Automatic annotation (TrEMBL):
It comes from Paractinoplanes bogorensis. It comes from the Bacteria. Residues 31-133 form the HTH marR-type domain. This is MarR family transcriptional regulator. Pfam families: MarR (PF01047). Transmembrane segments: none annotated. SUPFAM superfamilies: Winged helix' DNA-binding domain (SSF46785). Signal peptide: none annotated.
Amino acid sequence: MSQDASTPDSRTQLDEAMRSFMARVVLFQDAVARSVGLNSTDLQTVGLLMSEGPASPGDLAERIGITQGGAVTSLIDRLEKAGYVTRRRDEQDRRRVLVVADEQKVIADVGHIYGRVADRWNTYLSTLTDDEIAVGARILAAAAEVNREEIERLRRER
């Protein structure tokens, strides 16, 4: 007989699994970044530029939660030197500079790593029912939203 999802034992199991998953995600991202000579923040910045689009240096600093000025300039300089981003003039406002990810470079350098993980993940997902996948998706989406809200709270409290 299966346990109800709200029993303390199943909640404890989910809490432990989530803690482990979150720690492993951070460590995995760090390992991927280091494999191409970047640090975790650099790789996450490129990922945000790919998923959310180009940004001005100030907007980029806000997205990743660092102070504007020297810190974001150094980060952009490192990524530009490594070939992962370029600075371009904004077509709507030529006075403004945008930071743009070079998606081809990212795919060439780390795409195979993420592809391998996606293949393994898809193999596992093929063993689940659509209902099980839907529950997992809801849990992960809720966890992502909690994390997003807590990031915002921590940034406001700084």
